[in-house]
Amino acid sequence: MVNAPSVAVVILNYNGKNWLEQFLPQVLATDYPGVEIIIADNASTDDSIGWLMSTYPAVRLIQLSSNLGYAGGYNRALQQVVANYFVLLNSDVSVQPGWLGPLIDCMEASTNIGAAQPKIRSFHAPNLFEYAGAAGGWLDAWGYPFSRGRVMDTIEPDRGQYNDSSSIFWATGAALCVRQSAWEEAGGLDEMFFAHQEEIDLCWRLQLLGYQVVACGNSEVYHVGGGTLPVGSRKVYLNFRNNLLMLGKNLLPIEQLYTIPIRFALDGVAAWRALLTGKGGEFMGIARAHLFVLGWWLRGKNKPSKARKPIRSLVGVYKGMVLVDYFLRGKKLFSEIIRINK
Fold it and tell me: Does pTM top 0.90 for this prediction?
């Protein structure tokens, strides 16, 4: 490849020595010309740093002074990186040597493309898509994320149905390629999110700035999933809290008037269902999320995104409610749900 754009693949690590041992050699085998592989460490307390320095001393290491989460960690690390494209790659992602070239080719197709992702398949069940991102993320008009290849808990096998390159609403943070200029124009990730759905918020803001977000079907990686934050009330809290924060930042005020109360009510149903089925931790996670968001709003901390647009006017938005289609209408596949909208 002549005059290939510069690419920095940045892996954010936190106590992930086991993932680095397993997957870093594959990333280092990437055959893209001149790619720089960087490990950004979120103040790990395991032996990640010692192992990395002794085993791969030539790999660039950025050490952060505290655990800043996904959002803060990448923001601080990428301030120290110069490249045409950043690839934010989870430490628990398995890649093949030729995974990166098609992804960059996809980005190079238009300067209007701000972010992209490869297909994400499950490491433990390689014939299936992976929950977090699958073949490209969508959002319904009520803020519920789903993906080409994954709707709620229904995960499709990869039969080549999403091998195309397609415009989407959000690209997964497990393997997120971002144009540096677009990243800087958007201001990076929102550090209030810490972890979970910060990439959806970023992609929303990129669309508001006029950029496209795409899924590149001719590049694929394999994701373990859940490798960096264990399942529990903390994860539930962040997911519910951050989804509501994202709506508060990016919806038009008129949309918030009816969307936010309905979302609080639906979240409440999920909370009581969790409690009645013995999942007290999930109940408390949702309750804490609602209390945080209410306090955030009452303290006037809401900083709306610039130039907000009606959510239904954005690419990759389903105008209905995916919960209704999935649970009441029995629409389990992405193609069934999106067909409703055509």
Answer: yes
